[in-house]
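Hello forum,

I keep getting stuck at the same step: I have a sequence, I want structure tokens, and every attempt I make locally crashes halfway through. Rather than fight my setup again tonight, could one of you with a working pipeline run this one for me? It's a single chain of 309 residues.
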Amino acid sequence: MAPSRDLVDIASHVAAESANPIPEEAHTNGSTNGTTTEKPHNWIPIAEHVLWKPTRKVKVISIGCGFSGLTMAQKIQNAYKMDDRVEHVIYEKNPEIGGTWLENRYPGASIPSQIQYRAVSLIKSSQVMCDVPAHIYTFLDIPNPDWPAFYATGGEIQEYLTKTTKQYNLDRDVKYNSKVIEAIWEEESAQWKVKVKQGENVISDTCDILINGSGVLNAWSWPNIAGLHEFKGHICHSADWRSGYDFAGKRIAVIGNGSSAIQIVPELAKVASRLTNLVRSPTWISAPFAEELSKAPGTNPKYTDEEKE
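Reply #2:
Ran it on my machine without issues. Output:
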């Protein structure tokens, strides 16, 4: 059988190097003492060629178009230029990119220049915050010199994601309003069988590699409290925040004291006539991640124009 043209003839490369040995002076190890590094007598050169080239594209499905899905798109399309080897599809259940930064819109710890005691103004001026320093909360190869402060708000992160996606065409392979509802590995075909809900329709797809980038914040639930959903007042969940409701002068109860409540409670306390926080046990707040790198630890200092440059 004739050898495949996709295979490299390693023996010919070994023979070629033996016939054309590397000059002795080329073996210097870079140290200033001028010593050389001899190859051992049994040295076998490595042929720096692709041993095998795939004859078909690998099909990859990514679930979710937040940071993970967009990072995968950036690697395939731009960083490693794998379009000739990879067919990529991203199924996103929302009509926009962003993932958690699109969905989580509850008020957080940003400090408005002038507090306005209405809910709409409150939400606009005070947004959910990220506890990771902004300059390391970006795509690895696409930094953002325009962060206004050491920590970024959810809105600022979403703006960065939207801008970057448009600039690098990262949503090229995205199917919006498409929720993956089932994924089963089929041993016989060695593929994933995927079902996707698009509106009232359910479509089927297959792939070689399935990447779950849906995040950990999508499986939110209500606490099991008798009569909770018979309550006639306003009910909302931090993971499904309803913008536009006026909290001013209301009596408010917040259940829980996790990271979301830690941001929400102080902001709602500014406008509520009375606020009660119901918790099962105390919570502990540690120093923010990498705050020692900040010029004012314990705060969220703004960057000056000079620092941005």
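Residues 203 and 296 are 52 Å apart (CA to CA). If your local run keeps crashing, start a new thread with the error log.
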